Amino acid sequence: MITPVKIYNDHQALSQEVSKLIVLQVSEKPASVLCLAAGDTPREAYNLLRQLASEGKADFSTCTFIGLDEWVGIPPENEGSCAFFLHTNIFSPMRIAPSQVHLFNALSREPAMECRKMDEYIRQVGGIDLMLVGVGMNGHIGFNEPGVREDLDAHVVDLDETTQSVGQKYFKEKTTLLKGVTLGFRSIMQSRKVIMMASGKKKADIIQRALEGPITTEVPASLIRRHPQNLIMLDRDAASFLEGGSS
User: Fold this and answer.
1) Which domain holds residue 186?
2) Would you name the residues annotated as active-site residues?
3) Mean pLDDT value across the chain
4) What is the model's pTM?
């Protein structure tokens, strides 16, 4: 299977194209079910989505939004949580109704049950139409860490040391990050479309391994290559280690 890879001059150009694809999805199916990752990589794309919505060029009023992942034990009002990021950057400024949003409850005393609830909710809404994911420094997608099984739906994860370390950047003070909840690779592969987005020189090595190395659970991002409707979108820095990526 040939993996489509699109390379853009810089992060801004990349973000513009990602935002356009999300708007296109919603224009073609106004009741789309969207799973949008939190994090620094898609932040500018979400800024552009807000702008397009405010100009009347995009309407998300009948969409459903699904959470990709969350840090276990971190409350939604904590600025480092995925919930806080999504509410701040998408839901609140775009006036998305609470009924349109279904995120993981990171404070549940039974996180495994919370995962089953997420799986059931996704089934009830007919599956995910478009999933936008980033790539972790260790190649994780969501919180699917190296060595993850491919046959999992939503599940609880023991976070990799790299994820625990890199994740500190989202918090104002040092925070213990031992576990996460995430949609699994079965959830990802069952989504109708997947966009994998990466930006910056620091992602160049893992992107090269994910796209030009073997498809392996040791580099979870490589598994995206098996999705029948995948699209890899990179800026030139993230693509710089690919064969011909910097040209």
Assistant:
1) 5-235
2) 69, 138, 140, 145
3) 96
4) 0.96
